[in-house]
Amino acid sequence: MDFIKNLKMAKYKRILLKLSGEVFKGDAEYGLDGSKLLSLAGEVKDLQDKGIEIGIVVGGGNFWRFRDFKELEFLPRISSDTMGMMATVMNALAFEKALANLDAKVRAVSSFPCEKAMETYIPKRAEHLMEKGNIVIFAGGTGSPYFTTDSSAALRALEMNCDLLMKATKVDYVYDKDPMEHEDAKKFTELKYQEVIEMGLGVMDLTCASLLKGSTIPMLVFNLNEKGNIDKAVSGEKVGTIIT
Ligand code: UDP
Asked: Which residue's CA is the nearest one to ligand 1's atom 23?
């Protein structure tokens, strides 16, 4: 009965959560922060217990990001991007184990084939896993260089027919400029994808915004550091900036 009650309270039935590599490193300079992973896993498990179907796209920036190592002239872009995709596989493995440690049903899949670590992403199979109540962690970005994991989050949200794409950040809302550096930064609570493109807002890249512009999937940009925000957002409470 509790399960049914909780399900009715949720506004969204199937969500795609985008977690950048930054999230996994917590306060550390690099790599993974175990306690951060576990507390995050706890919040995600709570959602699963409410009957919400959850997909998670993980970034890799806590280990490797093309733009952070651009100055390495000997390293071609394709190799550097490949390293970035491999970094997402490391995060996915770690988060899969953090969730499993809490007895969550979870499966990591990768669009960058990595058979000894996890199965390769096949859309129909991944959707089936979600329908069966597994949290599905999507690693490997799009599986191709020259993209970001924001774009892969848009793609997976579309392919998995998600009701909402939730992008976790360190700030409460989308602003027209960095609120840490500019006192007069303007805050947005609602935006259109077209406005994100026209104003060149840094909240997502153009590929991601263009993919979502023609869709019915809203993106919620919210502050992950405020505990309980994921739960509030899924229940339809006003949190962060909603982009449609
Ligand atoms: N990457 C890629 N193709 C993709 C997704 C990611 O080549 O489809 C590479 C790219 O080099 C990127 C890195 O993986 O810089 C890590 O991804 P991202 O920067 O999106 O991670 P985040 O900033 O979310 O941690």
From this structure: 61
Pairing of strands 14-19, 53-58: parallel
Residue 24 CB less than 6 A away from ligand 1: no
Task: Answer yes or no: is the C-beta of 169 below 6 A from any ligand 1 atom.
Answer: no
Helices marked H in 147-192: 149-159
Longest dimension (CA), the chain: 60
Q: How many C-beta atoms surround the C-beta of residue 9 within 10 A?
A: 12
Nearest to 3 by CA among 133, 100, 106, 129: 133
Query: Which of the residues in the chain have pLDDT under 50?
Result: 8
From the alpha carbon of 111, which atom of ligand 1 is closest? 8
Ligand 1 mutation pick, 88, 95, 121, max ligand atoms within 8 A of CB = 88
In tens, the pLDDT along 166-204 reads 999 988 999 999 888 999 999 999 999 999 999 999 999
Q: Round to whole Å and give the CA distance between 22 and 57.
A: 13
Q: Rounded to the nearest whole angstrom, what is the distance from the C-alpha of residue 149 to the centroid of ligand 1?
A: 5
pLDDT for res 218: 97
**Which residues are bridge partners to 188 per DSSP?**
174
* Residues found in the chain: 244
Q: Which residues of 108-120 are buried (b: 16+ CB within 10 A; e: fewer)?
A: bbbbbebeebbee
Domains, the chain: 2-243 (3.40.1160.10)
Cβ atoms within 10 Å, residue 190: 11
